[in-house]
Amino acid sequence: MKYNIATIHGDGIGPDVVREAARALSVVARLSGFELEFVEAPMGGADYDSSGSPLPESSLETCRASHAILLGAVGGPRWDSLPGHLRPEAGLLGLRAGMRAFANLRPARIFPELASACPLKPEVLGGELDILIVRELTGGIYFGERGRSSDGGTAWDTERYSAPEIDRLLEVAFRAARAQNRRLCVVDKANVLESSRLWRQRAQEMAPRYPDVATSFMYVDNCAMQLVRNPRQFDVIATSNMFGDILSDEASMITGSIGMLPSASIGDGGPGIFEPIHGSAPDLSGKDQANPLAAILSAGMLLSYGLGRPAEAALVDRAVASVLAAGYRCADIATGAEGEIILGTRAMGDAVAKAIAESAR
Length: 361
What we know:
The protein has twelve helices and 14 strands. By secondary structure, the protein is of the alpha/beta class.
């Protein structure tokens, strides 16, 4: 079997981390007996500089023709003064819309070796953490009607959801909960917002179809507090676009480093988009200092959710855990503990590639 993987290197450290993620994928493919072809699809600020567009139509076509998309990071201060539709982030929104990627999966996991980097007290953390936030990605207030009055003194953004938009996201969340610990918490603001009342209604009506999943509900402000008070109570969280944006960033900081967190954006038609949640960090670009582990773990999600190869995805996860257990760290996850070995981007990629090969024996 041969798979085409569209690679979007993007800006800043994007090319650095995509290189290592692609290398990990290549090792897995060689050991597992399938082929990968990486096809570059330019996108982001660097491509705006060369083509005048943050997402050329040719790149969109390349992505549509692929089995999955591996993305580094886009954006940076260099392009902050551009009009909104020309900024690198507009290319990312266009990519998500073009791939019909409506569900963003963000796992927040603490590896035991990195528990000391968690800002929560050990007695609060209570051991290992493995939360999955399933965020609706193409609707809600970010895509609703917006405007400003002629005098500039009034502005508005509209939160709008339809039942089909909610239902398809909840289907993903219920299935994800089945694959984890069979607990789903739907987060909303149903005591105030009519759109949230529709979210809660649709979840209540869908829950009987998943009797093996314990379904609960929580207001978003309480969820924000509970994530730092008792994060282990959560398994899978399903929520709207804006709430998911905020809560997943909060959950990412609980893990101790944004450099460890992957993500997947999937839909019902186009290929999925797999990317680390960190930014482009232009100050680290090309310096061999970026942590590639979030991108490598995103490659693992690509194998599982994008290519339907969970066994091969497990090779990547085990390799990362093995590297951390051996004491290897990039600078952002180093704690100063005895036995830590600080590696650059390439050396960490080397260590993971070697661990994948060893774990497959």
